[in-house]
Amino acid sequence: MNKDQDHNLLEVRDLKVYFPVMRGLLRKQVAEVKAVDGVTFNVRKGEVLGLVGESGCGKTTVGRSILGLYRPSAGQILFEGQDLAKRSEKAMRETRRKMALIFQDPYSSLDPRQNAGSIVSEPLKIHRLKGKKEEHRDKVEQLFRTVGLDPGMMNRFPHEFSGGQRQRIGIARALACDPSLVICDEPISALDVSIQAQVINLLEELQSRLELTYIFIAHDLAVVKHISHRVAVMYLGHVIEITGSEELYDNPLHPYSQALLSAVPIADPDEEEKRERIILKGEVPSPLHPPSGCCFHPRCFKAVPECEHEIPRLRDAGGRHEVACIRV
Amino acid sequence: MSTLLDVRDLKTQFKTDHGLVQAVDGVSYVVNEREIIGLVGESGCGKSVSQLSVMQLIFPPGKIAGGNVFFEGKDLLTLQPNGPAMRSIRGGKIAMIFQEPMTSLNPALTIGVQLTEMLKLHLGLSKEESRDRAISLLTRVGIPSKDAESRLSDYPHQFSGGMRQRVMIAMGLSCNPRILIADEPTTALDVTIQAQLLELMKRVVDEAKASLVLVTHNLGIVARHVNRLYIMYAGRIVESGTCKDVFRHPLHPYTLGLFKSVPRLNEPKGRKLVPIQGAPPSLIDLPPTCAFLPRCTYKIDTCLKEPWPDLQEVKPGHCVRCYVTPEERV
Description:
The structure holds 2 protein chains of 2 kinds.
Chain A: H1 2-7, E1 8-23, E2 28-44, E3 48-52, H2 59-66, E4 74-79, E5 82-83, H3 89-97, E6 99-102, H4 116-126, H5 133-146, H6 163-175, E7 181-185, H7 193-209, E8 213-217, H8 221-227, E9 230-235, E10 238-244, H9 245-250, H10 255-263, H11 269-274, E11 315-316, E12 322-323
Parallel strand pairs in A: 3-8, 3-9, 6-7, 7-8
Antiparallel strand pairs in A: 1-2, 1-4, 4-5, 9-10, 10-12, 11-12
Helix pairs in contact in A: 4-6, 6-7
Chain B: E1 3-16, E2 19-32, E3 36-40, H1 47-54, E4 62-71, E5 74-75, H2 84-89, E6 94-97, H3 101-104, H4 111-123, H5 127-140, H6 145-151, H7 161-173, E7 179-183, H8 191-207, E8 211-216, H9 219-225, E9 228-233, E10 236-242, H10 243-248, H11 253-261, H12 301-305, E11 312-315, E12 318-320
Parallel strand pairs in B: 3-8, 3-9, 6-7, 7-8
Antiparallel strand pairs in B: 1-2, 1-4, 4-5, 9-10, 10-12, 11-12
Helix pairs in contact in B: 4-5, 5-7, 7-8
């Protein structure tokens, strides 16, 4: 276990992120949205951890809390063994240099009035890593080449690029300060099918070449399986299952994971004919009024009366396959 | 199985400052009775515009430049777009469901008003009759019957994304259409809701003895649900056939490229994805040669010299628009 901890780049312990709901003239807090409610996981150095779940399950909030964009209501986030909450503003700045974020929408995440070169080099300016003029230019050119863009396009503006190229600019910007952890928040879902593979391959290649650690947030399960070593499945602010990506797809234990996987259609009509489909009833409840006990019980096809009362804890079901369900 | 809708050589253009956009350039397809067909392609390939053209919902600067749309013995394109004949078909016999339910519902009117409007207009029902019918429609699309009545007085924003799409399905079905066109009906929704709604659509279309045209870019949805499919690229159909034929023996290099570039859930990890190089072409001033040529890895000399070939039937029911034969494509 100790040895394990040495290799953990990131540890998230019982993270809770609640957002207050304010109403009325005096902006009194009337309720809380429990966006993330007790999430624990580790990410080893050089690992790709996939974070999957439906919209509103808290996967993006987890990612943003790690970057320090949201202040956790409770719990700890340890980056390289140090608690982020206890770091001073200055130290936090240094830590944040080692973390980067790739956004979902390559259209709205690039400033339309900045040229591509200036977008990519902005993190260098912010972190005062900007060297001499020539060095700086070399560095930016090198970043362009790293992501497969022609450095000659540095003076162009975002609207002159295609969606796939824009996402490459976003990736180059994320890599500018040599981060060790990159949070990819739905990096390909805004792209066309034939372009997605280009970006997935680029992300994969960069990960192994630069020994990056990724947290890969996405709702496309096939893509997550393809790129991740381990996958955490989230539902309504909880991690309900976490295991190796092959293991999850071959042997999902949590009823929600089973339903989620069976809901994803496979591009193979012969395979589709054989598959068993679990169609869930209803929709994801509001995190404003989460159900009692296991948050999944109102939609669960395996629920028993105890599920309404008992909050299942994430536990090891053998072979580092962790699941939060009393029926497993 | 008789043919319900027969679209021949449909052409739709948009006049822009940069030139004439050939959004749909000679598209032909048929929809048979009680069949589910899929129209597959990336954004900008003309799949939505072709459907809007069939419904005559193309407005300036767009123009339907040619072709025929035969439905029940009539060519719909000869009808006045706003004439009574076309209006009785649009939304009545051919209904359409759009991708984003929030933008296709009027936010200022209740669901009840919007649902009953069609019933009064197309079926000539009275206020009470249309209300009863609206309630039964909502129940049919899975909105609990005890809530259905009260939900009629709710506004679109009071519904979740999935619920709104259910309302759209109810609306589409309200006048017993022969054909339901669903344009990316579940793209904005989560997978479990997606699965729910597609099953629902299949069931209700089957119950109504109607046909379904599913427009999507998702190959998985196509593989799971459709009988026959058409693959579109740059405003044209490049391959068509039964779902099984196309998936088992894809013929067009673009189809092959699509299949190789998407990861599948059921395959072992570690397969390298093969992306299609380059990007889809601009639809302005396309050269007469194959539009996929710049991205094609199988091109031969003929492709560079000759114009884009027509769709050719390679084996019964399986057509492709390509000079390269499967034997040459190694």
